[in-house]
Amino acid sequence: SEEVDDSVDEIAARNENLKPEETKKEKEKEKEKEKEKEKEKEEEEEVSLAEAAAKINLPHLTVYLVKISEMYPMLPEWQLIKFVDYFGIAFCDVPFSWPEMFNNPPLFKLIDVIDVPLSHIPESVYKISVDWIQRQKLNTLCGFIWWALNKINGCLTELRGGPPHTYRKSQVSLFVTSAMVLRGQPSALARVLPPMRFKYSRYRVADQLPVTVWMIAQASRGDLFMALFTWADTLLPAVDTNPQSQDLILQLVENMLSQPNARTILVERAVFEDHGVIPPFSFESLLRLTFPDSSARVKATARFEAIYPLLKELALAGTPGGEAMKKGARQIFIFSLRLAGEANPVLAKEATSIAIWALTENIVCCNHWDNLYENNLKASVALLKKLVDEWKDHSRKLSSSRSNTLTLNQTMKSFRLKNEKAINEGAANASLYKEADESCKVILGRLSWKSTAITALVLAAVVVVLAAVVLSFKPEATTVLKKLLDSWICTYTSMRSPQLCI
């Protein structure tokens, strides 16, 4: 009986030990059920963005915007915060349904998100809001964009499992108001992103890139030129070997260039602004991405090749003879001369062509060329040879004035002195100097012939005029001299503008 009692006691003891564990499990199950009920209740209370936006009272919104402008006239930043708060209240029951969109770059398709979230906002609400935004100072809006970008990225970081973010108001309102500001005043983003490129590289990493792309896409709906300039200035130099990053950056520019009348809008604006849409340092990045070494080609290369002709045109666009155009030509010449000497033949050929364009746009590039000549001898040989081969195409611009002709003449003479010195000293690359010297001789000969021919024609014309005066009493002689003079004048004119004598 004692043994039976002992076994009963042991069983009872074990049961006692099990009770707390079972109780704990039951409590956990109850908590899970409560959470599920709360979640179901929240889902029942949730409304779509379109439904919430449709409930916005337009007169109330109008009065509210006037009120905050009057209440905080000296605090424009606070006005924008109150603007966000208004939509935060309006969208408090709207779930933030876009983290998945931004948190999965491989699945990110710009065409699917470019109109998110404004496609759900009534046009009347959007118009009233943007009209108010456009009355704000640009510096204030720049500060807002900076603030919003940090908040949005902070929210997304938290949703990825990162540290909790301080912003606890409606995340939907952040996206809505940011999109409105970006479309209403795109130049604000153009001012904000470039400094971020240098100070905060995190805005270009894969996790942050979708939001940056989305923001530039919003700006493109308001100002295509400014958005493309921002893309080229901020994202193009940041293209790396990551296929996902390349795809996002290409999606954005392809979308912008496919907009109706994009080329016409961009070229005309470039002429008006007196500078290309693609900054020179970004243009160099574009060249390297479009013309990589044959062994370095990737899937994205073909996409860059497809858009390169238009982007090149936009990079070289501007007002001919304008100061900004001349400055850009100098910068383009320097890097294109360097690229023209690289081992990649396709890249070198394109760079050589661009370097000659820069010379024809700004003859001052000859001075830079003279300084860089010996360190870029291979490229210089290619440029000189191309100038000789295509002299008819470029001579009119290169010698369009006496000053231009003199500058080019002096540059060729300077090259010849350098060539002669290197050849006499038996330099290792003497053969290149000899090749360059042959081209310099040809160019100098053509410049000299033109100068001599023009001088001779002018003197001949003077002689004819004097002879005409002397022989004016003989009508027949005067007629012959007049025809001869006309012929010489036409010859002289054809040197400057051949089409005038056709």
Give me the count of strands: 0
Indicate the percent of residues in helices.
over 70%
Main β-sheet, in a few words? none
Q: How many H/I helices?
A: 24
Q: Sum up the overall morphology in one term.
A: elongated
- Spatial extent as radius of gyration: 36 Å
Low-confidence stretches: 450-464, 495-502
Q: Could you give the order of the helices and strands? A: HHHHHHHHHHHHHHHHHHHHHHHH
* Gap from first CA to last CA: 134 Å
Provide mean pLDDT, rounded.
Answer: 83
Structural class: mainly alpha
Strand content: under 5%
Keywords: Membrane, Transmembrane, Transmembrane helix
Pfam families: TMEM214
InterPro entries: TMEM214
Organism: Arabidopsis thaliana x Arabidopsis arenosa
Protein model, in words:
- It is a single chain.
- With 502 residues, the chain is mainly alpha-helical.
- Helix content is 75%, strand content 0%.
- The protein contains 24 helices and no strands.
- The protein has helices at residues 2-45, 49-54, 58-71, 76-90, 99-103, 110-113, 123-133, 138-159, 171-184, 187-199, 209-220, 224-235, 243-257, 262-273, 280-290, 299-315, 323-339, 345-361, 365-372, 377-389, 391-398, 402-424, 430-470, 475-496.
- The longest helix is centred in the N-terminal third of the chain and has 44 residues, at 2-45.
- The termini are far apart.
- The model is unreliable at 450-464 and 495-502 (pLDDT under 50).
